[in-house]
Amino acid sequence: MHVGIDIDGTITRHPAFFAFLAGSLRAAGHRVTIVTYRHDRASAAEDLAAMGVAYDALVSWDPDIVPIPNFDRWKGDVCAHLGIELFFEDRPETINHLPAGTVGLLVVAPEAGLVFYD
Ligand SMILES: [Mg+2]
User: Fold this and answer.
1) How many whole angstroms separate alpha carbon 113 and alpha carbon 105?
2) Rounded-to-integer distance, Cα 13 and Cα 107, Å
3) CA 8 to centroid of ligand 1, rounded, Å
4) Tell me: the pLDDT tens digits for 20-49?
5) Is the C-alpha dihedral spanning 66, 39, 91, 23 positive or negative?
6) Quick check: 86 and 99 in contact, CB under 8 A?
7) Ligand 1 center from residue 27 Cα (angstroms)
8) Are 48 and 7 in contact (CB under 8 A)?
9) 88 Cα–ligand 1 center, Å
């Protein structure tokens, strides 16, 4: 499997779980890609290391490559391009724009509750 994971609001919601999940997946021969809107890639890598989250690839938004990001679609485009099969994410808008080949797994903040869209 190729599993994608968002950082903010997802890994940061429960770092110990995602550290365990990512490490276990990789140990079992699966691929883990971190996909984040953060444009400071070095800072993201430092935070992941501090949280103990291992990964095979880190994809961060780069304003020099995508100057006007469409936050609702960019991660879906990344998932399609890389062949990510399952993606953990906390934004329903992003889940709604994942490609057909990617199963979205929504992390819900208890204080926010579920958000439903028509
Ligand atoms: Mg997020």
Assistant:
1) 15
2) 8
3) 4
4) 999 999 999 999 999 999 989 999 999 999
5) positive
6) no
7) 25
8) yes
9) 9
